[in-house]
Design goal:
The protein is an alpha+beta fold. It is built from 9 helices and 10 strands. The strands form 3 sheets. Strands 3-4-6-5 form a 4-stranded antiparallel β-sheet. A 4-stranded antiparallel β-sheet has the order 9-8-7-10. Strands 1-2 form a two-stranded antiparallel sheet. α3 packs across α5 and α6 crosses α7. The relative contact order is 0.11. Bound molecules: zinc ion.
Length: 240
């Protein structure tokens, strides 16, 4: 069973929870929930724009209005439904409100949830870098490298969660897997300092051009419609 071992079972709780209750309900140390109440976190995209506190963002997403006693009082207590939705959004709780063992104790940094999390507003599953990487058969680093390319990234995420982690909806993951299956066609890159436009495909550990070169951070992604000019890539595409 997944029953919490810390003494707070959210599935049968009715009274509002203090910050230390919330920490315990997620299997974390006492002060962990403080940052979801007050401290802003940075977004994954590296922008300095701060995200709203996660508890507030989730309350808004599920349409719960927080009173001044919660927002400004010295001893804030959050409704159970907000805490449940937060746990599910961040990856501590499953759809039934039970602790997810693999994610217990993960409080620091931008950790990747073991299984997809649940979006508070829509209840849809949010897939993360590790889930997309597994679906594509590439490393997490390969996906992260793709993410760092903003404009022409073909792993463009659907959004970022309350911790600033990039996520994709299930249909997008399926679409990206389908695109990866159809081979190098559709993806184009100009290598740093080069004149040719190459085709590109994800390999096991990194993205490669159709002619076998490893794609690095300084290379430039082209629109999908760009014409491949590298003779070796054209040959590979014709053969593939
Ligand atoms: Zn090439």
């Amino acid at each position: 069973m997944n029953a919490p071992s810390h003494g707070i079972d959210l599935t049968c709780r009715t009274e509002a929870l203090s910050l230390s209750d919330i920490s315990r309900a997620f299997g974390l140390s006492r002060s962990s929930a403080q940052k979801w109440h007050k401290t802003p976190v940075q977004s994954a995209t590296g922008h300095k724009a701060a995200l709203p506190p996660a508890l507030h963002a989730v309350a808004q997403a599920i349409g719960v209005r927080l009173g001044p006693d919660v927002l400004e009082g010295p001893r804030p207590r959050y409704p159970v439904e907000v805490v449940l939705a937060l746990g599910q959004a961040l990856g501590y709780l499953d759809r039934h409100g039970h602790l997810i063992k693999e994610n217990q104790g993960k409080g620091r940094g931008r950790w990747l949830p073991a299984v997809p999390t649940i979006d508070p507003a829509t209840r849809r599953e949010r897939h993360y870098v590790n889930h997309l990487a597994a679906a594509l058969g590439v490393t997490n680093e390969a996906v992260e490298m793709g993410l760092s390319r903003k404009a022409h990234s073909y792993v463009q995420p659907d959004g970022t969660d309350e911790m600033g982690r990039s996520f994709w909806w299930a249909p997008t993951v399926e679409h990206l897997v389908e695109r990866a299956r159809t081979g190098p066609a559709g993806r184009r890159i100009r290598l740093y300092g080069g004149r040719h436009t190459h085709s590109a495909a994800p390999g096991r550990r990194s993205f490669r051009t159709g002619c076998g070169k490893i794609i690095g951070r300084s290379d430039h992604w082209m629109p999908d419609t760009a014409v491949v000019t590298c003779p070796a890539c054209r040959k590979a595409e014709a053969a593939g």
